[in-house]
Amino acid sequence: MQYQIFKTLFDEESRRYSELEARSRLYLTVITFYLSVIGFKINDVVEFANKFRVPLILYIVTAFALLLALLFTVASARIRNYERIADPEKIIRLLGESAPTDEDFLDARLIDLAVATNRNAIQNNRVALMLRYASTFIFIGVVLQIAILFLAIVKART
Fold first, then answer.
1. Which positions ≥6 away from 83 have C-beta within 8 Å?
2. What span, in angstroms and rounded, lies between the C-alpha atoms of 141 and 62?
C-alpha cells in the first residue's frame, strides 16, 4: 500500500512533465505564428501603422514581449535531468550475498521513489516557472495587439 502511494506521486510528476511539455509546444505554436505574421508582413504592419497613425513603438514592444515569451518557452523545453526510480543493476549489486526481506527491499524502494519524485518535482517546477513567464509575455503581446487595433479604430473615426 505504501509503495503504491509513493508510486502514484512519482507517476503524477511524470504526467505533469507531459502536460508541461504539451503546454510548451502550444506556446511555441502561438508565439511562432504571431512573430511570423509580424516578421513576414512588416511592410503591411508599417503601412497599417502609418495609415491609422499607430505608433510603431507599440509594435516593437509587442514583438519584444513575444520574443521574451519565445526565449522562456525555449528555455522550458531544454533537456532536463529527470530521476528514475532506481537503477536495477545497482540494486542487484547492493543486494550482496543474501537477499533482503521483502519489507527491507520495499523500504529501500520507497526511499528511491521519494528521492526521484522530489528531484523530478524540482525540475517540473522550473519548467512551470519558465512557462508562467512565457504566458505572461504572450498575454502582454496579445493585450498590446488588441490595444493597437482599438487605437486604429478610434483614429479611423477621427
1. 115, 116, 119, 120
2. 5
CA atoms within 13 A on the CB side of 47: 4
Retrieve residue 6's grid coordinates.
509513493
- pTM of the prediction? 0.83
Length of the chain counted residue by residue: 158
CA 75, CA 70: separation in Å to the nearest integer? Answer: 8
Angle ∠(101,106,111) on CA atoms, nearest 5: 130
Task: Return the DSSP state at 52.
Answer: T
What is the H or E stretch that residue 140 is in? helix 102-157
For residues 11 and 18, give the distance between their C-alpha atoms in angstroms, rounded to a whole number: 11
- The count of C-alpha atoms lying within 13 angstroms of the C-alpha of 122, restricted to the half-sphere facing its C-beta, is 8
Taken in order 108, 113, 114, 120, is the CA torsion positive or negative?
positive
The string of pLDDT tens digits covering residues 112-158 is 999 999 999 999 999 999 999 999 999 999 999 999 999 999 988 87
Element (H, E) at 61: helix 56-76
SS3 category, 96: coil
Q: In terms of Cα–Cα distance, which of 80, 67, 79, 81 is closest to 28?
A: 67
CB-based contacts of 136: which residues, under 8 Å, 6+ apart?
69
